[in-house]
Amino acid sequence: MTIFKAIKCEFIKNYHLKNILIILGTLLLSVIILTENNIQKNNLDETINFNNLISINATNLEQNKYLSYFPLKQQFYEFYYYKEKEILEYLKNDVYQKDIINRQNDWQYNIYFHTILKKEIEIYLSNILINNRNDIDIQNILINPSSDLFDTNLYLLKDYSEKDLQNLQKNNEQEIKELKAIVNSNNYYQYYSYNYQYDDEFPKLQQVRDLVLARKITDYSNYNYENLFMYSLYFSHLEHQELMPLEEYKIMSINEFKQSNLKYDPSNGSTYYSYDTYKNSYKFLGQNALAKKMILEYALQNNLPSDLLANKDGHLFTAKSNVNTISKLSFVIILLIVLTSVNIITSEFNKGTIKILFTSGIKRWKIFLSKFLYLVIHSYLLWLVLFIILYIYSGLKFGFQDLFYPELIFNGSKVIELNYLIYILIEITIINIPVVAFISLILLVSTIFMNNVFPTMFGTFLGLITSCIWFLINEFHLYFLLYSVIPYFNLYEIISVNNLINISNYFTEAMRFVSTSLDKGLIISLLTIIINYLIANYLFMKKEI
Amino acid sequence: MDQEKIGKFIYKLRKEKGLTQKDIAEKLNISDNSVSKWERGINIPDISYLPFLADIFNVTVNELLNGEYDYKKKDKNYSKLNKVIAIKDLCKSYGKKQVLNNINLDIYEGEIVGLIGKNGAGKTTLIKSIINFCQIQKGEIKLFNKYISKDYEKIMNKIAVIIENPAFYLNLSGRDNIKIVSLLNNITDQNYIEKIVKELNLAKDLDKKVAKYSLGMKQRLGLVCALIKKPKLLLLDEPTNGLDPIGINELRMVLQKINQKENTTILISSHILSEIENICDRILIIDQGFLEEVDVCKLKHHHKSLESEFLEKVGVTDDNI
């Protein structure tokens, strides 16, 4: 009970009108800047929300101006609307579904999911189109000639001859045959090149296949089905016809790769990682690929919005999209925390008010604990207030309707709908754990130095670099930092599944180096909290007045 | 007998009790005018009224006739009193400087003990050591017959401390500061808090920010925060700092009152020797880490002032000033 009273005293001391106004002003300004930055970054000429998505139906396909923003939805409606049930049945009965739990991290799964499946669907659809070619309605349907389910280049079906479609079918069938041959032959080749970008150049399919087949391996004893994830993505970008010099590619067996001493060398555009890192990072990506697929299916079946439905380069930006960027403001929370937590110990000693606490009959460890708990509660309150401001501002800017749709979460076995408010509260709780680690670090520093200047400078500096820590780690090769808590102060990069699509280069590189994950970030944060707290508490107990 | 002094004393006692002249007259079955004459020093109460008056004002007849409280003449039988502070062989140093040297001290319940010494003699350090604000190198300190490290919360609940200038949260009002102290010390009796605030003349300034308080107001606020705990032991380190003569007088009256009514033990350090002499039962001099009790009776016998005794003890003579 005394701890609760001491916490209440901390609130009386710190929550007065001036402080509250400063905090509210800072958070509001941050929200406005974030939102405007989001709008600018997404090149939003107009903002699209999920109501526009929901409004698309079979009767207004051509007229609906929002169609191009939702290619998958578009294709589903265009090609699948009347056949949707059959397509979904197809998806459910696909070959890899039977073994999906065991093979979700399998590179074969990725090839099937990303490439073979798409091509098989397109063959299936091409048959439908060919068989119904004379139907006037079908003729006006838009078709994607690049055979990529996620591409947005669209042309009218009537401009394509039956022969074109048959060729498309044939090409797809051939590709499927070749891919299946590679997969079934169990010939694994570790392939590393460079960070792939949409604008980068990719080899021709034939060249890559030749390279792969030329290095057939006879000894399969060490195979464990490492993935050729990159291959599947390359195959899907057939329009990239530029040739890459062969010497820029390194292909080696897994054994060779395990024994190699290749080092990270961005100067030639190449990156090489340890075998374990590669394996771990693609395990992470594979799990996310499965999650995305499941959420996508669920959203389509239940006519619910999901960011995954949108074009990756698209202009979808709803109120929810804006609120979901809340974790980008963690550095603002951290900076506000610095200003509060630095003073909480040092000013009490420097101004002598610590005597009020020490003569109160409350044991010192309880006093210290109450201050720590106050800062933890304070940090959660900051997040909560930030969320409320962001929620209201986003609703006013983009419309409130999207904010009432549930968030879709894949829990490893099925998709569940979670109330959006609860989802954000859970996300805030998780994101705040590294922030609490940060608090414990600042408390330790201020207890050691017993002045405001150094801890404030240290805390501010640390808070600012959290927003660009991954860039710094890669740019200056500070990989040892990945074993500390510093990169995890901003957990946004790690926990956001959606962010996987937009994942930045430097993040993927560092992530491959050490298998960075949400679990690891939380464990490191909790350990940091405990160690820093115990040391700071010990020092506090020994302080003389 | 000093009639005027007696009259003023009776006036003061009546005011403290909140009685009118009429109330006194009715109790003694005399006229209002008689009481008025006593207070104006025109004449003194008849000997037959003295015991009744003493009873009304809760003083002794002797005190009435002397026209003042007679604290120093309290005849305490220490063997029957509880020890509130028991210090044995206390040693404390800051680095190489030995500040307290084998201090032995017993303070009994209800005592007012004065502590005097030069600047840097160790008065504040002694008080801080008692309440575990600093680590001691050697020795044993018991408060209420218990070690503070073992029963910290129970012991500290009975103690109120003002060390050096009391510190407050300057951005908060006096009322908020008192609220914080009340919360931390589990004080819920709002009426008592208001009574103390009123007695120390802080009521009208309570809602102002402490940053705007004068030094005297801050001292009074510090006293309020100390007294609302209803402490059994009050440790005061130079509480008269910054107080004007009126403030010093008010402080003295408050301390004497709580000592008399609540039997609060008080250890007070001060540079104002006259105040120490007036209110304390015992006086201790601390010099170069050593503690020595002043023999007040001997001083009186030799017509010697406390000041000259103090200067002699600390080795200050006319030659070496």
CATH class of one domain in chain B: Mainly Alpha
Strand content of chain B: 15-25%
* Approximate shape of chain A: elongated
The CATH architecture category of one domain in chain B equals: Orthogonal Bundle
Distance between the termini of chain A: 26 Å
Strands ordered across the widest β-sheet of chain A: 1-2
Note poorly predicted spans of chain A.
69-92, 94-106, 142-155, 187-254, 264-275, 311-315, 495-516
Total number of strands of chain A: 6
Outline the biggest β-sheet of chain A: 2 strands, antiparallel
What's the arrangement of secondary structure elements?
The complex is a heterodimer of chains A (545) and B (321).
Chain A: H1 2-14, H2 17-41, H3 50-55, H4 71-80, H5 84-93, H6 100-103, H7 107-131, H8 136-139, E1 142-143, E2 155-156, H9 162-185, E3 190-192, H10 205-214, H11 229-235, E4 250-252, H12 254-259, H13 275-302, H14 319-323, H15 330-351, H16 354-358, H17 364-398, E5 407-410, E6 415-418, H18 420-449, H19 453-465, H20 469-475, H21 492-495, H22 505-513, H23 518-542
Antiparallel strand pairs in A: 1-2, 3-4, 5-6
Helix pairs in contact in A: 1-17, 2-17, 4-5, 7-9, 7-11, 13-22, 15-17, 15-18, 15-19, 17-18, 17-23, 18-19, 18-23, 20-22
Chain B: H1 3-17, H2 21-28, H3 32-39, H4 50-57, H5 61-66, E1 83-94, E2 97-108, E3 112-117, H6 123-130, E4 138-143, E5 146-147, H7 152-156, E6 159-162, H8 174-184, H9 190-199, H10 215-227, E7 233-237, H11 245-262, E8 265-269, H12 273-279, E9 282-287, E10 290-293, H13 296-301, H14 306-313
Parallel strand pairs in B: 3-8, 3-9, 6-7, 7-8
Antiparallel strand pairs in B: 1-2, 1-4, 4-5, 9-10
